Amino acid sequence: MLLEAVYHRPRLNWSYAYNENTIHLRLRAKKGDLTEVYAWTGDKYAWDTTKELIPMSLFTSDEMFDYWECETVPPHRRLKYGFLLQKGSERIWMTESDFQTKRPENPEKLFEFPYINRSDIFTPPAWVKDAVFYQIFPERFANGDPSLDPENVQPWGGKPERDSFFGGDLQGVIDHLDHLSELGINAIYFTPVFAATTNHKYDTEDYMRIDPQFGDAKTLKKLVDVCHERGIRVLLDAVFNHAGKTFAPFIDVQEKGEASPYKDWFHINQFPLAFDQDIPSYDTFAFEPLMPKLNTENPEVKQYLLEVAEYWIKEVGIDGWRLDVANEVSHEFWREFRKVVKRANPDAYILGEIWHESAPWLEGDKFDAVMNYPFTSAVIDFFVFGNLDAEGFANSIGKQLSRYPLQASEVAFNLLDSHDTPRLLTLAKGDKKKQKLASLFQFTFMGTPCIYYGDEVGMDGGGDPDCRKCMEWDKDKQDLDLFEFYRRLIHIRASHPALRTGTLTFLEASRQGTKLAYERRLGDDILIVLVNTEETAQYFQLAVEERQWENVLTDAPLRAERGILSMKLPAFGYAVLKAVY
């Protein structure tokens, strides 16, 4: 038993309250090392009458470690606990301070979960588990009101450039909501809609005004109301890390320098404002002079931005915020932001843009979720590029699941492309079979999936600005078969709770393998997903419960004989099987 690999910490993703009554415990060990693990638990004030051994299950693995997990419902919302580790006949007890061969005589040296305080429980909005998001870049989705077009507007469908405008607006979204409803979308994430000089609007000029090229606050209110009537939630983009160069306080600083009352609204390193080898004398997003970084530790800035966050929720009824460049803003600001937003709407979804491991932001006091780019990379590497084998992919997913409490994984924002990346179809070099495999995993994995506008009809595009093409509305140029594939995926996900909140178990994911099989299970709702990423047909033989199965994509029946489920998949083929009772 390699004790050096064993790890537990009484907080974060290792020991946490899942709800008001339930505590989840996790323990890490060397991969394949332990044969059994138990949690040794009880109430610290009634140890002798409440102590018990709770079996832990192997809930996920990565390339180096196994992660064991159990849940317990302590009678008085508090817990003392240790662990019993077994490798064959070898038994070791783990306390908070050491490992020992004998069972601890009393709970004094064990780990402790002092009490489940309701205010400390990380509780993301329940609706997000059932959401399917659709990301819209407003300037490129649809032109519904040509009277709002800027003077230099280009014909719809032209080649996008960094400074080009095509006249997309909020009325255009309203006009095409039937498209989203038919697809099955029930949540929209909009990139910024507030007044700004660029087509992407990440250089905010006025946080309290809708960009006149998109409409006004009445138009946004109409859009939100119509969406809500259709059961569609609306998420807006908050750019609170930085403003735009035409933001009134920054204009004042540019004009008055050190005499400006707004000089402390920003991070000014030197007056007068200048550039040295293209690096501004003030902090910005990256080194972009159009985007001066806001000083969110300044009380006036903080109050202004928090009022903005509250205003659009209360006055227009939006359902949450996506937070741009979220990891460059202080944790303290986001703690206050969460309190303000949740007071305005306890069901609001707070989504941070972070591209890497994000545990410090997912402790229940800041964000509900982050944009899950590590998920994106793993899916693209396996299903599209072939840079990972099946085992490597399963390990990558296992590592991600081990990092966060379950409630965070259940509402993770799982995307495959966005306005910041090349489109999925372009990454797949036009191979829609690969696009389908990647999307199949996205929609049968836990967390909320997001479709980037146009992916569902076969739009392609390289990096920015090519990934920001005008939406294709000509039916003759849309891939309607692909649209039907996405519509079917959304329907299957909505029909099976196991795909949203069930357990995930990899059934086949071998080294150098191109076959992937995994199970999603929630009570009697059991589904098995089979994927062949190889250019040739392959056979699957899986040990499963001996029962009738049905392919939900074709309605074809299939039976496991003697506990073995056999199936042949064509090149880049897939199947979703459900247990039939």
TrEMBL record:
<keyword id="KW-0378">Hydrolase</keyword>
<protein>
    <submittedName>
        <fullName>Cyclomaltodextrinase</fullName>
    </submittedName>
</protein>
<dbReference type="InterPro" id="IPR013780">
    <property type="entry name" value="Glyco_hydro_b"/>
</dbReference>
<dbReference type="Pfam" id="PF00128">
    <property type="entry name" value="Alpha-amylase"/>
</dbReference>
<dbReference type="Pfam" id="PF16657">
    <property type="entry name" value="Malt_amylase_C"/>
</dbReference>
<feature type="domain" description="Glycosyl hydrolase family 13 catalytic">
    <location>
        <begin position="135"/>
        <end position="493"/>
    </location>
</feature>
<comment type="similarity">
    <text>Belongs to the glycosyl hydrolase 13 family.</text>
</comment>
<dbReference type="InterPro" id="IPR017853">
    <property type="entry name" value="GH"/>
</dbReference>
<dbReference type="InterPro" id="IPR032091">
    <property type="entry name" value="Malt_amylase-like_C"/>
</dbReference>
<dbReference type="InterPro" id="IPR014756">
    <property type="entry name" value="Ig_E-set"/>
</dbReference>
<keyword id="KW-0326">Glycosidase</keyword>
<dbReference type="InterPro" id="IPR004185">
    <property type="entry name" value="Glyco_hydro_13_lg-like_dom"/>
</dbReference>
<dbReference type="InterPro" id="IPR013783">
    <property type="entry name" value="Ig-like_fold"/>
</dbReference>
<dbReference type="GO" id="GO:0005975">
    <property type="term" value="P:carbohydrate metabolic process"/>
</dbReference>
<dbReference type="GO" id="GO:0004553">
    <property type="term" value="F:hydrolase activity, hydrolyzing O-glycosyl compounds"/>
</dbReference>
<dbReference type="InterPro" id="IPR045857">
    <property type="entry name" value="O16G_dom_2"/>
</dbReference>
<dbReference type="Pfam" id="PF02903">
    <property type="entry name" value="Alpha-amylase_N"/>
</dbReference>
<dbReference type="InterPro" id="IPR006047">
    <property type="entry name" value="GH13_cat_dom"/>
</dbReference>
